[in-house]
Amino acid sequence: MLNKAQKILEQFFGYSSFRAGQKTVIENLLHGHHTLATMPTGGGKSLCYQIPGLVLDGTALIISPLISLMKDQVDSLLTLGISATYINSSLESKEQIERLKQLKAGAFKFVYVAPERFESYEFIEALQAIKISLIAFDEAHCISQWGHDFRPSYRSIVPNLRKLRQQPVKVALTATATGEVIADIQELLHIHPKHLVNTGFARENLHFHLEKGVNKEDFLLNYVRSHPKESGIIYAPTRKITDRIYQLFVDKGIQTARYHAGLAESERQLAQELFIRDEAPLMVATNAFGMGIDKSNVRYVIHYSLPMNIEAYYQEAGRAGRDGEPSDCYLLFSAQDIQLQKFLIEQSQMNEEKKEREYAKLQDMANYAYTRRCLQRYILDYFGDEKGEENCGRCSNCCQEGELKDLTKEAQMILSCVKRMGERFGVSLTAKVLKGSKNQKVLEFGFQNLSTYNLLPHLTEKDITNRINYLVADGYLSIQDAKFPTLKLTPLAYDVLTGKAEVWVKVKANEAAKDASHNEELFDILRGLRKQIATKKNLPPYLIFSDVSLKQMAQVLPAHPWEMLNISGVGEKKYEQYGEIFLQTIQQFVEEQGIAKNHGTATSLP
What we know:
Helices cover 44% and strands 14% of the residues.
């Protein structure tokens, strides 16, 4: 069966080999083992169930919490000649009944459904009538009560599945799961520890950047203007801020779409279509957008402000570079972002226990904004991923230039002050004491009499606050209560206080250079051709060929069908549909430009 899986990989999807973890997951499913796959966004999770679904008899059932993702995945399968459909609330009642009828008749190899379908007697009845090859839980963190995007309707599927006469193999897939989330999913779906597949969370093509203290609107305008041909997403924390940023770009004549829950369904759908089809290269949105968008050529994601937690941030940032190409993830941070997120948590309908967990997660997110460590490494440590290098060499912290600065003496003053204040107060009051403030609270507690009072008069309170936050982020201080944070010394702090450890920091960031080995002019021509075909067929451009495939074409300059079939993402099915016209376009460009090929490289003829 694995030989058949390999053949399907090549023929339908145009890849010669499996990515990390894919082969193991597919083998597990073909041998009937329930499996949990934790892979980074863009790591090829969908192939983990699509290929077994094509190998095994029957219909594969894919459970997804996202309507937009279903449509994208179904469109993608249909372009490859694979029978697929979706059943969700976006369909009229008559259409749902028709698709259930076709489902009973075994018309589909893949059916994508929303979790709510399992509360329908008619749907369960339809499933009883067919052979189910496998059941896949996409975005599986939604099933866990500890997941950052927990959906009760998603979790209730499990008891409903037990009503089925047949119990097919199950696979759960996620890109963002902490240890407790993984354990919860494992218990719910009865997954043996041997069948946990974790390829790590690292995204080696992503460059993470932190920008603090910048004028956010100016930064956005400058960045978007300097990347006019690239597709990007800007995430904003509220609808109001989303509308303001959207209007900013519209007023500057920049083609932009927007998406948030306050817009009509038809407006959201149109915005999504414009973005997916590259009609509007820029999307400004709240976090309601994007988790289910299978758009491979997003080159940058910018967070206007601090997200609520690391899981949400990594998932949203992970919309960039799904095709494996170098892409940028920016977080624009200011201290008031934390207060906004606290307000949003307080105003939510969560119970107090859940709120406390969210405050703690927000503190982890704030620590990310202040850390001087490698940003990718910070995220990997958060997820308990010990794989990969200590420093990614790509993020803004790793790429900082300038001399190292010794902050040991200032750190000792700060840590000593926290200790003398009884480890019972927060960042703000500690900064005031160190600054020598005559604030009423400082005087009330008699902190003006401490030996650490006014130890840092040459710094502003903001500078002292930043240094305290840095010490929190890198583990010298801990926060005891995320809602009403109090500072406490850690073992690392005692090493600094006793002179066993030093504290050093660097200064400014450089942008990572991007690969430009392909012919940029030809790449633009191929993108234009892809857009024409996509418009004619009413499909998103990336479903024709990905940016990775087009760049490889513009680098290799294939002259024969067999060379075209060696391009990543160009399988037999895709070549039958589009290969010839792309081949002709490339050869026409080569002749017009007088380009000679030499062992896979191209040079201009004299």
